[in-house]
Write a structure and sequence with these properties.
alpha/beta; Metallo-beta-lactamase, Chain A; 11 helices
């Protein structure tokens, strides 16, 4: 049963609960967060009953549970769970840290249906060999990205990446009951991708590591119920920050990372951002050239510029490098 009132972490197919004090505290926190999300939704009257998994008796079905385990240039990993499928997007944390954060988020996995890789930068693949040894699952990535992964990682550890399925930009494919759409993003990697995920009529989009937002990417982000979008740096902080000039140029370039300003322009524009999302997560924040308050204020100011009839009524959240965000329920 997937009604909010019935759904508890331990009832998800891939989850298991452990009983120590830290987990109990985390569980309490999750339940508080859960209550806040539910209360907020009730207040806003934005309930939509989902067809699949609906629990009847007025309960709202949950299509996705999204947990951002880490987000930023030291490691990225996001867990997407549906009733049947557990999918990890990017593998930028080592095995121990991944497991620790899964436990913190009450999402300890007994099985994983796949690891989807956006591109070969170390903050997205650094933990891949360890995670492959732990879960023995399939890695979904493009052929050029696979080539770069083999070049970047030590030869011995590449042998652990032995179950590979090639994907490509412009393709739709399914992993379990999740339909994935992969699309190209402008970034200085071999074949970088952004993704949207659909299950039970609900759509989650995840786009980080891109220098600007092309129209095609904006198109893919439309109708998202949950949107995770890079807001990497504040331009002024970057300019006066510690990076060498060539790195600053790289970050600011059309194949670098999205600035708070670029995100603001997108969020303020009803033609670009449709404001359909129930949660909007600012992600991949730079540790040195941004901070959560600056990114949040910038986004809030942009959202405040929208016309009333196109107002954003969802939650604005900030993903962290250091602690998991979620589970966010859709
Ligand atoms: Zn990255
Ligand atoms: Zn990157």
């Amino acid at each position: 049963m997937w009604a909010y009132k019935a759904q508890l972490p331990g009832q998800w197919p891939c989850s298991r609960l452990t009983g120590n004090g830290a987990i109990a505290r985390a569980r309490l926190t999750r339940r508080l967060q859960f209550a806040i999300i539910l209360t907020t939704r009730l207040r806003r009257g934005r309930h939509k009953t989902r067809a699949a998994g609906a629990a009847g008796s007025g309960g709202e079905a949950i299509a996705f549970r999204v947990t951002i385990l880490a987000s930023g240039s030291s490691g990225n990993a996001t867990l997407l769970e549906t009733q049947r499928t557990c999918l990890l997007v990017d593998a930028g944390l080592g095995r121990k840290e991944t497991l620790r954060r899964l436990a913190d988020a009450e999402a300890g996995l007994e099985r994983l249906d796949g690891i989807l890789i956006s591109h070969e930068h170390t903050d997205h693949i650094g933990g891949l060999p360890q995670l492959m040894r732990h879960w023995r699952t399939t890695v979904y990535l493009t052929e050029p990205t696979h080539g770069e992964v083999q070049r970047v990682l030590p030869e011995g550890s590449c042998k652990r990446i032995n179950r590979v399925e090639y994907i490509r930009a412009g393709q739709r494919f399914t992993i379990g009951d999740i339909e994935v759409a992969a699309f190209a993003v402008p970034h200085d990697a071999a074949d970088p991708l952004g993704f949207t995920f659909c299950a039970n009529g609900t759509k989650v989009s995840l786009v980080t590591d891109l220098g600007y937002l092309p129209e095609l990417v904006k198109h893919h982000l439309r109708d998202s119920d949950g949107l995770i979008l890079e807001s990497n740096h504040d331009l002024e902080m970057l300019k006066v920050g510690p990076y060498p000039w060539h790195v600053k140029q790289r970050v600011m370039s059309r194949t670098g990372h999205l600035s708070n300003h670029s995100v603001s322009e997108f969020l303020a524009d009803p033609e670009g951002f449709d404001a359909a999302a129930r949660f909007l997560v600012l992600a991949h924040l730079s540790e040195y050239n941004n901070n959560p308050d600056v990114a949040r204020i910038s986004a809030e100011e942009a959202l405040g510029r929208r016309p009333a009839e196109a107002a954003f009524r969802g939650e604005l959240l900030i993903a962290s490098q250091h602690v998991p965000l979620g589970p966010l329920l859709l």
